[in-house]
Write a structure and sequence with these properties.
Layout (H helix, E strand, L loop, with lengths): L14 H7 L5 H12 L6 E5 L5 H10 L2 E5 L11 H12 L5 E4 L13 E7 L5 H20 E14 L19 H4 L3 H10 L3 E7 L3 H11 L1 H5 L4 H8 L4 E9 L3
Parallel strand pairs: 1-2, 1-4, 2-3, 4-5
Antiparallel strand pairs: 5-7, 6-7
Helix pairs in contact: 2-3, 3-4, 8-10
Length: 256
């Protein structure tokens, strides 16, 4: 466990709602942890890549004074509406509609102008590209993020990853989900860091998050899909017990 106390996100205590609105482990704690690592500055422009319903986007806009653009090309699994519509409504509910823009766009074809953002942020999103588009598609997404950032801009990538060990044979059935299997989506920290560097970034910090397993357990307990199907992701997290599954983060900069 880390010594980070989450001074901002600890004010938001309804974990069921947070995990209903956020994708994957960590919720608003992950967003605050990444903001701290990235050194987010008020009055700067942030791109949230794969924003889902946008609660993290709204949190960063409100608590860190960001002018934020959230992009996501997907439709919501529950309502069928574009994620961008959820972000728009959530921005109104958070009172940050004047500083948050929601766009139904995805990487690597954002059509956004080059050199537009001081910071870029992506959590629990890009790893799924490995199943859909392979490693080449993953790299192309990173290169697109680099393109739309200003020179000297900071990129924070937070992603489900596995430890630098082989998948234990007894975990094979748990990590072979029929849709976006974790063994195909997740990579180790070293391979992910190498991809960020190949895209053209300079990496300043890369590590496994100290609270990774606490985030995964919180996800298992509060995510609505986990509660509906406890025999799936929650069972995989329980069986793993921290042997292979983790969550990594990378802080990188676009060369000036």
């Amino acid at each position: 466990m880390s010594n980070f106390t989450y001074p901002k996100s600890s004010q938001y205590t309804d974990l069921d709602t947070i995990y209903e609105q956020c994708s994957g482990p960590g919720g608003l704690k992950l967003a605050e942890f990444m903001a701290h690592k990235m050194g987010l500055l008020p009055g700067t422009r942030l791109l949230d890549v794969g924003c889902n319903r946008g609660w993290q986007t709204c949190f960063l806009a409100k608590e860190f004074g960001q002018s934020a653009v959230g992009i996501d090309p997907w439709a919501d699994r529950v309502s069928g509406e574009p994620m961008a519509e959820h972000l728009r409504r959530n921005a109104e509910a958070w009172g940050v509609q004047s500083s948050v823009l929601a766009l139904e766009l995805g990487v690597p074809d954002t059509k956004l102008a080059s050199r537009s953002f001081d910071f870029a942020y992506s959590t629990t999103a890009l790893e799924m590209l490995r199943v859909m588009q392979g490693e080449d598609g993953y790299l192309a997404a990173l290169k697109e993020i680099l393109r739309v950032m200003r020179p000297g801009g900071v990129f924070g990538l937070g992603e489900p990853m596995h430890l630098e060990v082989a998948l234990p044979p007894d975990l094979e059935p748990y990590m072979s989900q029929p849709e976006y299997p974790w063994k195909e989506c997740f990579r180790g920290l070293g391979q992910t860091t190498a991809a960020v560097e190949r895209a053209g970034f300079t990496v300043s910090e890369a590590a496994y998050a100290p609270d990774a397993m606490a985030w995964w357990r919180e996800y298992a307990a509060h995510d609505p899909f986990c509660k509906q199907k406890p025999e799936e992701d929650p069972k995989a997290i329980e069986a793993d017990g921290g042997r292979w599954l983790s969550f990594g983060y990378i802080i990188a900069q676009k060369p000036a």
